[in-house]
Amino acid sequence: MTLTVGLDIGGSKILGVLVDGDGAVVAEHLAMTPRGDVRAVEDALIAVVDHLRAATDRPVSALGVGAAGLVDVRRGVVLHSAHLPWRDEPLRARLAERTGLAVTLDNDATAAAWAEQRHGAGAGAPDMLFVALGTGIGGAIFSGGRLVRGRTGLAGEFGHVQVVPDGRPCPCGLRGCWERYCSGTALAESTMPEVAHWLAVGLGGLVATFDPDVVVLGGGLGVPETGLLTHAETHLRDHLTGGAHRPAPRLVYAALGPRAGALGAAGLAATGH
Amino acid sequence: MTLTVGLDIGGSKILGVLVDGDGAVVAEHLAMTPRGDVRAVEDALIAVVDHLRAATDRPVSALGVGAAGLVDVRRGVVLHSAHLPWRDEPLRARLAERTGLAVTLDNDATAAAWAEQRHGAGAGAPDMLFVALGTGIGGAIFSGGRLVRGRTGLAGEFGHVQVVPDGRPCPCGLRGCWERYCSGTALAESTMPEVAHWLAVGLGGLVATFDPDVVVLGGGLGVPETGLLTHAETHLRDHLTGGAHRPAPRLVYAALGPRAGALGAAGLAATGH
Questions:
Q1: Is residue A161 scored above 80 in pLDDT?
Q2: What is the tens place of the pLDDT at every residue in B221-265?
């Protein structure tokens, strides 16, 4: 049976996993993301793939990549990344050329959401909203068991929904973006209760918009120790439009930990959707 | 060939259409929504259906309803309506009992969006966002050619996303809801440029969230005479996260006019999805 490589590429770390057809991890490798140009990052990715391939005698058939940035899924291009040097970078074609593997390319939050929806905190929920709180906010949406990708695969960028008119400036060029008030970065300017408040406000809007079965909170802050969902649950019960007439979704922490992105990238490559 | 009745039930008017298998309108009837209790509204609906059935000798097989309110599509229940007396009202079962027809029940904006996506301004666009500006904001989302309904069919209530912290009070019980700043009602407190600004801000968030092919603006203000999309287009080009690296969707006015809801309700009843 063939194996699949999954890569989760963030601004500081690259995590690679080698998984079998059941999604079980055969090998794993972590590397630091080099501070350098496009070529340096690409070389680091290839080194992780080579390391994983060297760990097995079995054939590797595909490579799935989840990358931190705006990913045009149809063309396999990273349009823009805040923490990596990519600008309209044809990453899928570059990695296919250098590895000889079939490559799929997705946004990192999309990959993590896929893993949580299939094997993690959202398993069995056709309508799942995934919100990853890290440096910024990553997101993804499942409707009827399928990813809501949008025209080019850019759906789920709700970290840049404006929540405060003329609010805090965001590196994306806008002001008042949700992730300026609700993320690891926001904690530099806010207390944890303030971040919890903004999480609840943002989730209220997303729940009104999507009516999900379950909201999965992932990313570095998406762990029970933060207590973030306790406040959000109270807020949703009291402040969701439609009030008592409207059922509220379950709010849960992600279950797969920091490997979710790499596992999801491998899964997307193995299954194609 | 059998015919289908479509009803669009608003706070002030009830529009009924009788359509054939090609979606062509065979008969049409407009009535005022009575100011009264649940029974009075129900009697008015039955009168419209009877009127349309009397207009033909051909068999009528199904009744599709689009209702202004929070609709639990799975159970066929209007959970709550701002302008109609329904509270947890089992409207689908009531109308099925009184008409003897197979009945489908949807939110009115969902029905209008369906018609626009199949036969109107969004025809051929798999990923379509529908925003209806009337007394409030109605909405619906298509992803991959399918309606994003959510768990109970309540998706698309983005009129109640908070856009101003501690903002204008909304009859829904929240404050700062988008529709307090961007709707016909908002024009009582705002200039048209202010409404256009808030339309652009809200669409910016929704486009970041969904990455649609096309945004269709419907409802009473969704007509070219308002000029609302001119401002929104400029704003999206300059203020969408990802900037020049990200393709912007087409923004268009709805094409089917005030009959979209009734046509869509009939279409949903005839096709089942």
A1: yes
A2: 999 999 999 989 988 887 777 667 777 899 999 999 999 999 999
**Predicted structure pTM score:** 0.94
Q: Does B136 touch chain A if contact means CB atoms closer than 8 Å?
A: no
Residue A273 at interface with chain B, using a CB cutoff of 8 Å? no
DSSP A77-111: EEEE-SSS--EEE-HHHHHHHHH-SEEEEEEHHHH
Q: Which residue of B has its CA nearest to A82?
A: B242
Q: Nearest CA to CA, how far is B21 from chain A (Å)?
A: 28
Q: Does domain B124-254 have CATH number 3.40.1010.10?
A: no
pLDDT tens track for A101-145: 999 999 999 999 999 999 999 998 999 999 999 989 999 999 999
Among B88, B91, B143, most A C-beta atoms within 10 A, so best to mutate, is B143
* Half-sphere exposure for B16 (CA within 13 Å, toward CB): 24
What are the residues whose beta carbons fall under 8 Å from the beta carbon of B157, sequence distance 6 or more? Answer: A208, A209, A211, A241, A242, B70, B139
pLDDT digits (tens, 9 = 90+) for A18-37: 999 888 999 999 999 999 89
Q: Which CATH superfamily, name and number, covers A3-111+259-271?
A: ATPase, nucleotide binding domain (3.30.420.40)
Q: What is the ipTM metric for this complex?
A: 0.93
